[in-house]
Amino acid sequence: MLTEIEAKEISSELNRYEQKSASCIEALRVVQRHRGWVSDEAIVDIAEYLEMTPADVDGVATFYNLIFRRPVGTHVLFVCDSVSCWIMGCDKIKNHLTTRLGVNLGKTSKDGSFTILPIACLGTCESSPVLMIDGKTVSNVNTNILDEILTGLQREDTQGKTA
Amino acid sequence: MKFERPLTKNIRPGALPLDVHGYEKAGGYQALRKALQAMSPAEVIAEVKTSGLRGRGGAGFPTGVKWALMPAPDQGAHPRYVIANADEMEPGTFKDRILLEGDPHLLLEGMILAAYAVQANIAYIFLRSEYVLASTRLSQVISEAYLNNYLGEDILGSGFNLELHLHMSAGRYICGEETALLNALEGKRAIPRAKPPYPAVSGLFGKPTVVNNVETFCNVPGIVLNGSAWYKDLSRTQEGGTKIYGVSGRVKRPGWWELPMGTPIREILEEHAGGMQDGYRLRGVIPGGASTEFLIEEQLGVPMDFENVQKMGSRMGTGTMIVLDDQTCPVGMVHNLETFFARESCGWCTPCREGLPWVQKILSAFEEGEGRHEDLKILEEHTRLLGPGNTFCALAPGAMEPLASALKYFRRDFENHIKEQCCPFRSITDSSSHIGLNTLKGGPRRYSSG
Ligand SMILES: Cc1cc2nc3c(=O)[nH]c(=O)nc-3n(C[C@H](O)[C@H](O)[C@H](O)COP(=O)(O)O)c2cc1C
Ligand code: SF4
Ligand code: FES
After folding, report:
1. With contact defined as beta carbons under 8 Å apart, do B369 and B416 qualify?
2. Which of B153, B173, B222 lies closest to B339 in space, CA to CA?
3. What CA–CA distance (Å, rounded) separates B296 from B304?
4. Residue B446 φ then ψ, to 5°
5. Interface contact A28, partner B, CB < 8 A
6. Which tens digit of pLDDT belongs to each residue from B220-245?
């Protein structure tokens, strides 16, 4: 079932397009914003709401890079691996991340706190290498900066849990 | 040298963009007032046509000509649409972000003028969702524009109506291809459409539609306000206006600059980007985003505009260049590019869906020291098989541009990979990327890309 808030957010999109099904991508984004990812049940719910077939909604969901069909960690880290960042050493950043968090690209760390994903050019190539962490762009990254950020996030999380 | 910067005059790096009042004070929305009060839609199109403005999305199609392809309002279907392509995902490209974050009202004014010119009443900005800051700022200026009657009903008392929406993409490079973008906006998988019919005739929801790049729209207010003669004068070559050029890679000052159209590449690299970092030499430049051909040092005197760069065998593309230095492996660089293209192929047509992963695998074999002479032939064949005319859209032909030119200019590097059975650059850069470096001298070096 879509929650009341989800349904309300999706319905506010409907009048922006000529056809109901055009809100499909926005509906997926709404659900993901609330739940972190889009489950099979959510696909069926969205399909019903927009009068589409679940297969059509899933076809759309699986096409786009930023719709998650599997659960992700508390923090999602995107590492730009496109050309300017590659020249400026994004492989080093990638390796530092995977080593420190003990998890491969495309996977979520065991404790469920971090998912690391590759991403295409983040449009900040003049300050490469570039990452995006929880929707924030971090440019001119090096391993020190990365450590600081990760430590900060980990500290926040444990404080959040104990508080 | 002093010159006008109509696209970025309001942009102060690090500062907030102008709000509607600041923008008005800086002369903003004067072009719109002029057009609505004193120009017919046809006159706006004519002015843009004579200005010679060419699309900044990469292909350089003349903007006025594109607008004139829209059927007359009493002939085609309604509503009619105008769409800003703000999907910017071409690797190495960051110019639209500068405009979106730095002066979002300029984009709106350009779009409203375009909508008036082609008599469209609904507009969308198609924005990639990673541009979070741009999205916040655009939402802000859109509501300001509604409040001040630059959008909505009876704009400035002219009788012209326009609603404008921000659409956030869910991410995929192919969404930037204009017909795939239309499918994405319709909530479908972003597969390109067959052309013709062109979007001007049958676009969004089958209605007449104009799609232009962000930077293209940003050129329009200046042209309308100051005229096409002024616009042509801004440039150093035949092509009018200014251009946002960008440089990334191992230069001293990577960044962006709005300069007269036709500024030579060498001048951009040396005077603006500060030349190469100490200890690095330039080997080549990809002039306009990932899908353009390499240029080499001898060619860099070329004025950076559509026509001149094309004469050199490449394309100006997005105008944001990527510099290849002498300590970066050209084969590795092309491998990186083709990995991107293979991953982002939409999978609709066979040559691209099957060909790009093959190309990627071969290049990966080169990097792992397993390249063979026959592979060079296979790569060359692909540059033809995936070339223009053989695929459903321009993604695959674009992907072949850096490959074909690398095979031409950096052939020796490919051959060295075969001869030495390893990537000769690995020992220079000692990049920790390549973990598991083989200890056997001269043997193949493997790496796990993680
Ligand atoms: C694979 C692919 C990706 C593209 N991505 C973009 C993009 O992100 N932004 C853009 O403006 N044009 C992009 N284009 C070009 C558009 O198809 C189209 O030509 C452009 O938006 C037209 O605007 P213009 O005439 O103002 O240049 C892309 C083309 C292809 C083939
Ligand atoms: S060339 Fe590639 S991206 Fe374009 S339609 Fe074919 S498969 Fe899709
Ligand atoms: S290549 Fe990484 S931000 Fe553009």
Report:
1. no
2. B173
3. 14
4. -110, 155
5. yes
6. 999 999 999 999 999 999 999 999 99
